[in-house]
Amino acid sequence: MAQVGAAAMPVIIGVIVLYGFLKNVDVFDSFLEGAKEGISSSFRILPTLIGLIVAVSMVRASGLLDILCSLAEPLTRAVGISPEILPLAILRPISGSGSSAYTLSILQQFGADSETGRIASVLASSTETTFYAIAVYFGACHYKKLRYTVPAALLGDCAALVFAVLTVKLFG
Questions:
Q1: What digits encode the pLDDT tens for the residues 45-91?
Q2: HEC per residue, 143-170
Q3: What is the pTM of this model?
Q4: Which are the contacts of 165, defined by CB distance < 8 A and separation ≥ 6?
Q5: Closest Cα partner for 157 from 62, 86, 102, 103?
Q6: At a CB cut-off of 8 Å and minimum separation 6, what does 59 contact?
Q7: How far apart are CA 142 and CA 138, in angstroms?
Q8: How far is CA 53 from CA 3, 68, 82, 97, 115, in A?
């Protein structure tokens, strides 16, 4: 199986070059043009990404995550889920690496087969790093009106939390 994976990329590149040759497309010039556009897009979204990284660092260092989680802890206990799920639900839309590290710590603390571990796994795999995706996609096309995007995306993250809990509670 490892050999198939190792051979996949050269085969795909070969098929692309062959297709370009058959269609009389200068594949190398097309590649260079695409690479130029990619570098240009990277430089355009760089300020947005730097701002996002600074914001994530500030949220982590300020203790805001802990404050939000302590305020919502009575709600999580009333619903019957572990309060440790809430920081993951808050962190996931902001930071992919931070939420991955937190998910790993939940799995180490509670175990992968525990209800908390299963909810954390389903939640981590069913949500997106919302603010990163918005920064990249909207930054790349210089779109600044996020009037409906952020609320809709965060509503999707909330729905993912609810359905992650329901899925694990109902289907175990």
A1: 788 778 777 877 787 788 887 788 888 888 888 888 888 898 888 88
A2: CCCCCCHHHHHHHHHHHHHHHHHHHHHH
A3: 0.68
A4: 79, 81, 85, 119
A5: 86
A6: 65, 94
A7: 6
A8: 38, 20, 29, 11, 32
